[in-house]
Design a protein that fits this description.
globular, 3% helix, 13-stranded mixed beta sheet, mainly beta
Length: 295
């Protein structure tokens, strides 16, 4: 896994805040783009330690398990989540940190068909791989930093609660075949970048984003016969901007209510609800990928 996928080193998701706030106070909201930032103390590879923690079916996970409940926390750094087509993987974590910082704290507990996984990292980059044969639920939290998650055909999520407690952001990408029921994202100061780029999804899904100071940038490229997308957003101080001819509805500075043209007849739907205090919400067909990230 490349350093581009480890979040820290070349990109710090917390920088989302500056771009989001800038968009909010501009006279006319523009699509939010995100600059690049270096964190010097994570670029010295000679001083980095790489830890691995794996839970695999028939090795240290019983055959009865089909539900995995996650409790993931990184105090300062980032979390990157992908889903694998490996049917044996229940959970795999790779944690990169400097030699001076604390090691990964990980534990697990089985109860019938449920596996509880608790992972905490102090400072570093946590790369998580989840398998296609399990349904996932739980919480993912950073206190200062960011989270990147890509959902494709191997993803099966009941509900994820994502939080950047103090300052940070989240990048969520929805690809074809994804299956998720609900994803809640709560950001104190920072932003959310949401990419929906899919021909189909396995079921209806809800995405909720709450940002106190910052914003949401949303790009949508879908087959509207298969996927209906809606955006309901409110902004206390700032504005909403929709620059996507595939959506209809109403847009004002404080409220946005739009849907894709074929929303009612689409096979499955993704509904996005956003609440922003100080900042902005933008919707367009495509948004610039964060520099340094690979999906």
């Amino acid at each position: 896994m490349t350093m581009a996928r480890t979040i820290l080193g070349e990109v710090f998701v917390a920088i989302l805040a500056f771009a989001a706030i800038y968009a909010a106070v501009s006279p006319i909201l523009q699509p939010i783009t995100f600059p690049r930032i270096q964190i010097p103390w994570f670029t010295d590879q000679a001083n980095m330690v790489r830890e691995q923690y794996s839970l695999v079916k028939d090795t240290n996970v019983s055959q009865n398990v089909n539900l995995v409940d996650l409790n993931i926390t990184v105090k300062f750094g980032g979390v990157y989540i992908v889903f694998s087509d490996d049917a044996q993987i229940a959970f795999k974590a790779v944690f990169q940190h400097t030699r001076e910082t604390a090691e990964l704290d990980a534990s697990r507990f089985e109860d019938g068909n449920k596996l509880q996984v608790n992972v905490q990292g102090e400072t570093g980059s946590l790369n998580l791989t989840l398998g296609r044969n399990y349904q996932y639920n739980g919480s993912l939290s950073v206190r200062l930093g960011g989270l990147v998650m890509t959902l494709g055909q191997n993803a099966n999520i009941s509900k994820f609660a994502v939080q950047a407690k103090y300052f940070g952001g989240a990048l969520l990408t929805i690809k074809s075949g994804a299956s998720f029921e609900q994803i809640d994202m709560n950001i104190d100061v920072g932003g959310v970048q949401l990419n929906i780029d899919a021909q189909n999804v396995a079921r209806n899904g809800i995405i909720k984003a709450n940002v106190n100071i910052g914003g949401l940038s949303m790009g949508v490229q879908v087959d509207t016969a298969q996927i209906g997308v809606s955006l309901e957003s409110t902004v206390d101080i700032g504005g909403n901007s929709v620059n996507h001819e595939g959506f209809i509805g109403s847009v004002s500075a404080t409220h946005c209510s739009v849907k894709t043209l074929g929303y009612n007849s689409a096979a499955n739907k993704i509904d996005v609800n956003a609440n922003v205090g100080l900042g902005g919400v933008t919707l367009q067909q495509a948004i610039q990928q964060l520099a340094g990230f690979e999906t």
